[in-house]
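Possible regression after last week's pipeline update?

I re-ran a chain I had predicted before the update to compare outputs. Posting the input and the new output here so someone can diff against the archived version. Not blocking, just want to make sure nothing changed silently.
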Amino acid sequence: MKKIVIVGGGAGGLELATKLGNKLGRKQKAHITLVDKNSTHLWKPLLHEVAAGSLDDGIDAVSYRAHATNHAFHFKLGAMRTLDRVNKTITIDPLYDAEGCMILPESHLHYDILVMALGSVSNDFNTKGVGEHCIFLDSPQQAKKFHHRMLNKYLQLGVKETNSVNVSIIGAGATGVELSAELYNSLKQVSSYGFSHIKSADLRVSLIEAGDSILPALPKRISASAHQELVKLGVDVRTNTMVTEANEEGLLTKSGELIKADLIVWAAGIKAPDYLKELAGLETNRINQLIVKPTLQTTLDDDIYAIGDCASCALPDGGFVPPRAQSAHQMATQVGKNIIATLNGKELTDYKYTDYGSLVSLSNYSTVGSLMGNLMKGSMMIEGRLAKVVYVSLYRMHQVALHGYIRTGLMTVVEKINRVLRPRLKLH
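New output (post-update):
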């Protein structure tokens, strides 16, 4: 029986493991194993909501082990360290508990087909002090770290000599913009849970972008609309501002200005995990992404695929597939087809990226974005309630890929019930 190993349980990795488990694992046609260093999965575009406290990851997260049992694949907890392409094995680091005691020793997994779906991490571009003084939103753990610090700052208001909470967010891409808006929404909720002394003026959010506009990957009209909405909320949007250093007081800019900050979030760029650049001699680019062929196989090893943010896939027009959730979803579907084709002795087909547009949620205030597809030529700008419905539907599509239509429908009903029964903000 062929052994298929998928490293990384993000949107693409988990969807692929689910698909292959349902189609191959149940019929004993292949042995599928998903490897991840975490025990649960949360859709990465939701991390800004975890950071603001408007989403409880303990409720929305998917247990890898339980999901594997329900979909006929296996789950291995641990972080991949090395790859042996000759013997077709990967090495998984030992597992330790919070006190540093070893739970599981180093282990090895054999594969016939390997899929790298490791996603991405924040790229600090070697900016001085960022690693020590900034929080990255790469994982639920980091998002919860920010949330806990934010709650502590609210507690200090009016007790210590603290007049406001100053939050600086570097990088005005989707994460930075969505977090900025979500923080103002959570502030309104906080004031209704025993923090009546906190006013909107007590929160000061600075959104800092080195380029000349926010949301640089989106059309100018969408960027301008989002910019206007953020200013209405009270966000200090600073474009053409390059950060050169982070320290205990805040941020230093290229012009020499000090932007004071109590909490700093770095969301200015992404890269694939550093260890990929020296992984078994596979070809990588300058941000450590594995370079793949049109079939999504790595250029130097046909038995190794790469999908999602850790893959560098060229587009026919000379660009590259953008690091978005829709890309990971499409790549997972294509690799699933190619793996099944390989097992059946059929030819592989090339991956073709389809851009369905981009949407940015400004919390409960607004949603803006563009839709692209067969119904229109070019793109159509949407905002408001329609955009919000489409934005939520993207997450529902991910849930459907994991759980099917019936379970997703039931989960949607439960979410609506929880909005009535549970606090609107996580306060612990």
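Follow-up from reviewer: compared with the archived run. The two ends are 47 Å apart (CA to CA). Marking as no regression found.
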